[in-house]
Amino acid sequence: KNFPNSTFTGYDFSKEAIQHANEESQKMGNSNTSFQVQDVEHFSQGIQFDLVTAFDAIHDQAAPAKVLENIRGSVKEDGVFLMQDIGSSSQLHNNKTHPLGPFLYTVSCLHCMTVSLALDGHGLGAMWGKEKATQMLNEAGFPNVEVKQLPHDPINYYYIAK
């Protein structure tokens, strides 16, 4: 409603999540949103967007490198990919003083890595870290990556990739 001249498209491979999103969007009276069942590992619809976002999701993917490549292909030349993910280092010893380190490693092992490994994936996990995330974004075709942390959100990093 706040951006009536824009179109918003959401993808997820969960039919239940997409159904819920479509129902909520309809309840809100949105006419410029659509949500579709789509595994972005196999995304090649030839559609390009001004802005693509992923929130706390890339590290759960079975094939995160392929997903990032597909995202790169779906971002317009002058577009932006905004990725929010856990603010950590790729080096375990650098996370010793992370205020939620033990909790995040536990969640990573019991959920994030398990989700990926169950799909025969890489098991990257939530604590993949800034260094690995930046490297993978570069390798996917995003040569310019800025990493920001917001004052009100000390847990996450925000990657602005172009």
Automatic annotation (TrEMBL):
Source taxon at top rank: Archaea
Keywords associated with the record: Methyltransferase, Transferase
Protein name from the UniProt record: Class I SAM-dependent methyltransferase
Organism placement in taxonomy: Archaea, Nitrososphaerota, Nitrososphaeria, Nitrosopumilales, Nitrosopumilaceae
